[in-house]
Every structure is written in C-alpha cells, then in structure tokens.
Design a protein that fits this description.
With 320 residues, this protein is of the alpha+beta class. It is built from 9 helices and 18 strands. It has 2 domains: 220 residues, P-loop containing nucleotide triphosphate hydrolases (Rossmann fold, 3-Layer(aba) Sandwich), CATH 3.40.50; 89 residues, Nucleic acid-binding proteins (OB fold (Dihydrolipoamide Acetyltransferase, E2P), Beta Barrel), CATH 2.40.50.140. A hairpin with a 5-residue loop joins β15 and β16. The longest helix is centred in the middle third of the chain and has 18 residues. The radius of gyration is 23 Å and the shape is globular. The two termini are 32 Å apart.
C-alpha cells in the first residue's frame, strides 16, 4: 500500500468545475509533481488533500490514516502557498516557531528545533529579521522551515517559487530535493513550470480540466507522452505525416544543409542563449517551433528564408 493514496476523489465547485475521480498514490519519501495549465485543478486537488476543501466522494489516506473528513489541524499535513503566507509582523524565528508554540511545546525545545531546521536550511542569519527584511529566497526557506519543523506526514507545495528569479528558483528547488532525500519527506508539488516539475518529480502527474490524465516517471512522461494534449503541453509540434500524427519536440528538429523535402518558410527567429528559436511556417500554414543550436550559419537565417528540416526523433500520437 502506498504512503499516500487518493481513491475516487470527486469534488464539484460552483460554476460546475469538477475534480473527477482522482486516483493516485505517492510513495513515502517521494516527490510527486502535479503539472497542468492554469485552471486545470491543481490547487483544488491540494485543497482537498489538505482539508481546506472536502471532497463530495472518495477517500484520502495518508500514513495509514483516513483523513478525508478530518479538519486541517488534525491531518498533520503541511501546506506552502504561492504567497508563502508568512506573518509580516513576526521575525523569521517566530514564524518558524509559531506551529510548535501552538502545540504548547516548551520554549527550550522550540528553540532547539528552530535552530536545527534553520541550520539545515542555512537561514540562521535571518532569524531575528522580519520577512520584509530578508530576500525572496530566504523567505522561501523560512516558509519551508515553518512547515517541516512540525514533522508533517505530507508536505503540499503550491507553486511556491513562482515569484523568484530563475537563478534563485534553481537553487531553492535543488534544496527542496535534497531536503526531501535527507529527511525522508513526502511532497506533492504543484507547478506549471515544465522544467521545475520534471526536475523535482520522482513521479509526475498531468491534470487537465479536473482529470488526472497520466502518471509516469518524468523521463517517460516527457519522452513518450503519447497523448496529443500532453505532447502539446510539453511543447511538441504535432505534425500530420502520411495520415499519421506524430509529435516532434523543437529540440529534435534540425535545420538541414541539404534538401530533405520537409521544407518551410522562416517566420521569426530569436536567440535564446545556446539556441535560436525559429518559427517555421509549414503546410496548411502550420507554425512549427525549432530549437537550433547556435552556429555562424544559423546566425545568417532571416524571416522569409526557405529552409529544410530534419527530424532527429519523433513519437507516434496514439491518443487525442
């Protein structure tokens, strides 16, 4: 039996949005990343797991306990929102200590646990400062410390790094992965950032329109999505080849020096660092995205040029 099991969860909201028959499991110590476009039901699912909402049917099992009907404060589930929800008038120390004090832990033990978790997250220097006086990355770590200091059975994270710059996001997500491993912490992590979701997840789930479409390893999910909708979510071009739909990722389309018969006209081109992103108009005015490795030859490509493309890898689309 898996450490977290969600069985037949269903919840209908005003406006008729429905989380429909969600079935998923998470192993102990695993990070499960839940991805999908805005409005797909990611946050709604977390709210049902945490106890902020109650499902109409189904059950939620965490660490052998059926928590489906329990209030938030009896689930022992941590929740970190996008806005972090730190108390602005409290120091970082008092934010981290808040939950421990509400459990009536003696102050000496509170101090020991706060200092221990602050050391683990390298935020000792922030403990006497207000959230407004520390950096975004430090606030992120304080919010993480406030949750994990309570030793939750499960930690839910709802797009907590959306306000951080790319360098900080990369640093903090590495720390989240490391802490999960070191503490054996089980995490369900919601994001619409594909790179973040694939990097963090031991297992990845994709949700569209309130339905959990697929659960797989990050590698299999990305390399062989099979479904046209999931392939498009991961940025694949969908191309009709001799009556069959195939998916080709922009990084697997190469600009060829020789005529291949797979031709198009350059619409736009822009430099993204290691690659040029080239938009190419193909048959029936379909726009294909190409990620072309930098070279002096590609530097000379301009809108209106006719170019040939070569597929290095393609997948067969088996589901709509």
């Amino acid at each position: 039996m898996q450490y977290v099991s969600i069985n037949g969860l269903r919840k209908t909201y005003r406006g008729n949005f429905t989380l429909g028959d969600i079935n998923m499991g998470v192993n102990r110590g695993e990070i499960f990343t839940l991805m999908g476009p805005s409005g797909s039901g990611k946050t709604s699912l977390l709210r049902n797991i945490s106890g902020l909402d109650y499902p109409d049917s189904g059950e939620i099992i965490v660490s052998d306990r059926n928590v489906t009907g329990l209030p938030v404060d009896r689930r022992n589930i941590g929740l970190i929102f996008q806005d972090l929800a730190l108390f602005p008038h409290m120091s970082a120390y008092d934010n981290i200590a808040y939950g421990l004090r509400s459990r009536r832990m003696n102050e000496k033990k509170v101090s020991e646990k706060v200092e221990e978790i602050a050391s683990l997250l390298r935020i000792e220097h922030t403990l006497d400062r207000l959230p407004s006086r520390i950096s975004g990355g430090e606030r992120q770590r304080v919010a993480l410390a406030r949750s994990i200091v309570l030793s939750p059975d499960l930690l839910l994270m709802d797009e907590p790094m959306s306000s951080l710059d790319p360098e900080l996001r990369s640093e903090v997500r590495g720390e989240i992965k490391s802490i999960s491993r070191n503490l054996g912490l089980t995490i369900i992590y919601v994001t619409h950032d594909i790179q973040e979701g694939l990097y963090l997840g031991d297992t990845v789930g994709i949700i569209f329109r309130g339905k959990l479409m697929k659960i797989d390893s990050p590698e299999n999910m990305f390399m062989n999505p099979q479904s046209e909708e999931i392939a498009r979510f991961f940025g694949y071009n969908i191309i009709d080849l001799q009556g069959k739909k195939v998916g080709v990722h922009p990084s697997d389309l190469e600009i060829s020096e020789v005529h291949t018969g797979f031709d198009g006209t350059v619409e736009t081109i822009g430099f993204e660092g290691e690659n040029y992103r080239v938009s190419v108009k193909y048959e029936d005015d379909q726009i294909l995205q190409v990620l072309a490795k930098y070279s002096e030859e590609k530097r000379s490509i301009k809108p209106g040029d006719r170019i040939s493309l070569e597929m290095k890898r393609k997948i067969t689309i088996t589901e709509n």
